[in-house]
Predict the 3D structure of the following.
Amino acid sequence: MSSIPAPASASLDTTFRTLRQSRGLSMNQVARDIISTSGLGKFERGEGSIGLEKFLPMLDRMNITMAEFMYHVNHYQWTPFVHFFDQLTQGVRQSDVTELQRLQEEERAVIIEPNSPLDQHWLNSIAAECAVGLVDDDQPPLAANVTAVMDYLLGITNWMQYDLYLAGFVAISPAPMCWDM
């Protein structure tokens, strides 16, 4: 069973306590029927850990998503993939082909497993390739790359946030030959 470990770099415990208190909730209100108040207290003091099966319902009780919680844990910065897709979005909005190509090259430079959907950098490089194609009609993405990413996405039964961001760029890419069936 996965667990939220005792405090790491950004202090999960302190973040949890700060968010709980900012909502005016007592430990008892958040812990009720999920975990003992003393167990929550130990977690908030950095003296113990909480399994995900208890942590997630407590976040839900506070009306906080895991993404929002991690945003706070990461010192109000989105995760690297959210930051990457935000940069792509800005590049498309500003029609900045140079910036989009820079992002594409950065991702290509760190690919470990080319042509593998298990390598997020390979997927990111294709998303950047699609973003370039959205801005510059003379540089459409390779049909094979778009097809590979779409095959990957269609093979997933439980899409996560990353997959949605990826689909947003690849599905609207200007590669019509990929969609001819």
About this structure: The CA atoms of residues 111 and 163 lie 18 Å apart. The two ends are 43 Å apart (CA to CA). The first helix runs from residue 12 to 22. The first strand starts at residue 3 and ends at 4.
